[in-house]
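For reproducibility, we list the full input for the adenosine-5'-triphosphate complex.
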Amino acid sequence: MKRRWRADLRGVYIIWYRDVLRFWRDRPRIVAALAQPALFLFIFGSGLSASIGGAARGSFGGDYVRFLFPGVVTMAVLFTSIFSAMSIVWDREFGFLKEVLVAPVSRSAVAIGKALGGSTQAVLQGSVVLLMAPLVGVTLTPLLLVEVIPLMFLLAFALTSLGIAIASRMKSMEGFQVVMNFLMMPMFFLSGALFPLQGIPAWLQVLTRLDPASYGVDPIRRVMLAASGLPDEFARGIELLGRPLAMAEEIGILAVFAALMLGLAVRSFAAQE
Amino acid sequence: MNVIQVDRLVKRYGSFTAVDGVSFDVRPGEVFGFLGPNGAGKTTTISVLCTLLRPTEGRAIVNGFDVAHQSDEVRRSIGLIFQDPSLDIQLTAQENLDFHAFIYDLPARESRARQEELLRMVELWERRNDRVRTFSGGMKRRLEIARGLLHRPRVLFLDEPTLGLDPQTRRHIWQYILGLREKEGITLFLTTHYMDEAEYCDRIAIIDHGKIVALDTPARLKAGVGGDIITLRTTDNERAAAELQARFGLEAARQDGMVRLEVPRGDEFIPRLVQDLTSQIVAINMSRPTLDDVFLKLTGRAIREEEGSAKDTMRLGARMWGGRR
Ligand SMILES: Nc1ncnc2c1ncn2[C@@H]1O[C@H](COP(=O)(O)OP(=O)(O)OP(=O)(O)O)[C@@H](O)[C@H]1O
Ligand SMILES: [Mg+2]
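The corresponding predicted structure, in tokenized form, follows.
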């Protein structure tokens, strides 16, 4: 029994380590992955900010780009999480998964190692995007980092686990486009990364509340807006059942979702032959 | 005690039966081969023995552990070289071995020494810090062999260890494999559909459509064919076959424009044949029976069929090109 525990811990560690090592190896990709957030931030953000600036000065205060920044950081976390989970399908296709599956560690350990590895990748990628903060007038303080990084990690962990649950059932990379179009993109657009979740049509409200990523974007935005000394009128909490949620409640919802997804990931991963 | 004991093992995929009630034992220190055409169920059998697939029926014991209930114990005691590539090509050779050593809980010190020993054996020591992406098919295979041996397994499973490799590399790999038995006293279970490779085995099970059709030493299997094989081409094969039947009492089979017969002493029979046969002989050939003949005799088919080679070409492609992501 003790031996099994030890073996599983080693398994979790080495699976995590391989993911981090591969991520680090591929530094050019880390830089390339900055392009998309930068496009959103500077072109989409600046353009939209200019056109709505006059009409909606009161609401956005001309600070749409600063509003958008946490959303763009979250986008990097979201995409990296799901992509890294999809590497299971790569490993299946290229055979390495067999080496892992026949090793004397439990499938649960492998799935947990993978979830941690993917989350670490996503947090690293998110942190790189975070380095753009000075360009949009957000000051990076140690306190901010201490608050934001665990939030990114929780969101990343939930999404990577969801990704693993899906990837364990996927036989080839062909399904990837489907995941992209029917999961990643909707999750991103509904998460509140691009626009505030208040004052939107009722049907859209319902959908945004169902998106787990919403409960990751809002806390991250709250701490970032607070740190840059901006009025936090657009990060007052997601309204649910007629009242805005406290930050702790949002984090709680995300944590419960993460736990459920991890359970699902472990189950699907163990079920594959 | 036998290293592997398999008793009426069945594996079904849905309603399709891939392994259909096979039973056999593998003795300690033996090189045991599974010989069969594409789709015979070789990989499926190995996968069950290595706990990658659960048996549908029957029982299999490896190193004293039941594959269905003691998978961790089985896994720790075996090494496995898969039919398809299974390296992380983004990592270096050494990193692949490190991963393996860690997940099999090998002490770091021992792992270093063992890695050097094995990498030198497969002649990859100089390339240890190169990414596997830059390796040739044969180099990858050799690295996989080193990896399979790293944790000192008591049995090594090799699924088509030389598939798609050039003859020189194949010979090389066989050198390692046979050397292993001497050096490590390890038991080897391998599958192949190369006849010449099957000859290296102490015992062979011939498997077809999920069933074992024969199991013995290569020499005894070949002796069972009934002697030497003579093939001749004549101006009229039909007439020649009839004549052989009438004059010599021999059962002659016609095949691919040739007449094929088996006789106990071919070298002594040929002069008589040439002298006495009235049909005109165009060409004559004699061969000692090969395992090919054994397979042909047992199943009525040659082991390499057309459809199979397409699949192997694809596999080979995966090995060569799989590297490029
Ligand atoms: N996952 C699977 N689902 C359904 N059928 C399968 C599966 N894997 C293998 N089969 C079928 O089971 C049979 C045995 O396959 P197996 O891979 O064991 O053959 P093999 O002897 O290893 O052949 P080869 O020489 O081509 O490697 C084949 O007919 C194959 O199509
Ligand atoms: Mg096979």
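The first helix of chain B runs from residue 42 to 49. The two ends of chain B are 46 Å apart (CA to CA). Both points were considered when choosing residues for closer inspection.
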